Amino acid sequence: MARIMGKKQISQLTFFDYCVGITIGSIAATMSVDQNVKITNGLMALLIWGIFPIILAFLSLKSMWFTKMIDGSPTILIQNGKVLEKNMKKNMLSADELMLLLREKGTFKVSDVEMAILETNGQLSILLKSDQQPITPHTSGIPIQQEHGPTILIMDGQLLKKGLKERGYAEEWLLNEVQKQGAKDFKDVFLAQIDSKGNVYVDVYEDNEKKEES
Q1: How far from the centroid of its chain's Cα atoms is residue 111's Cα?
Q2: Is residue 8 part of a domain?
């Protein structure tokens, strides 16, 4: 049922998703230990609570108003570096709890925050002031080479030929690379990965490492 409802249910994006998850778990637990509960009634309840979120999710895609009604809307807690006490009270959030949420984001000073938003899932999103944001190559104007996602070439001793072909390398080249890093053959490699610059990371099985040491 969790697979049918999608990853949104597993991540519990909103309060409603959280309640649905608890309810389904409670029904399943009751069915497994309470002999007075009929299997048909329990399965029907699970079916209803499984289909209900799917219907609501579909309706949410069609209407923003319906989405706000079910999931609520984000609340600004800090704006222009100032705490909005009225919004804090609406969400029954104390100063200590706000500081806890800020510390979880790695921020210890309210004065460093330009804006903080309490999301519908209870998480706090923050935007630091310009002078507190980390320097990146983009902000400093330094040109860098574009980095692409790495590709796994060997997994559990098995050569993944598709990834190797997409990267444009030959098996002989890869074998030479893994041998440089302590493996004799592909089957000796637990994991091998190549990045966009052609650097190969190789992790061999522990048994092979111990044999080499001995």
Answers
A1: 29
A2: yes
Radius of gyration of the chain (CA): 26
Does pTM surpass 0.70? no
Could you tell me if 24 and 46 are in contact, meaning their C-beta atoms sit under 8 angstroms apart?
A: yes
What DSSP string runs through 16-27?
Answer: HHHHHHHHHHHH
Backbone angles phi, psi at 121, to 5 degrees: -95, 5
Report the alpha-carbon distance of residue 190 to residue 5 in Å, rounded. Answer: 34
Mean pLDDT of 127-140: 77
Higher pLDDT, 48 or 209: 48
Q: What is the mean pLDDT of the chain?
A: 83
Give pLDDT tens digits for 76-93: 999 988 999 999 998 888
Task: Kindly report the CATH number assigned to the domain that includes residue 188.
Answer: 3.30.240.20
Residue 104 included in any domain: yes
Domain containing residue 92 = 75-132
Q: Total structural domains in the chain?
A: 3
Q: Looking at the predicted structure, is the pLDDT value of residue 62 above 90?
A: no
User: Considering 28, 49, 71, which residue would you say is the last residue of a domain?
Assistant: 71
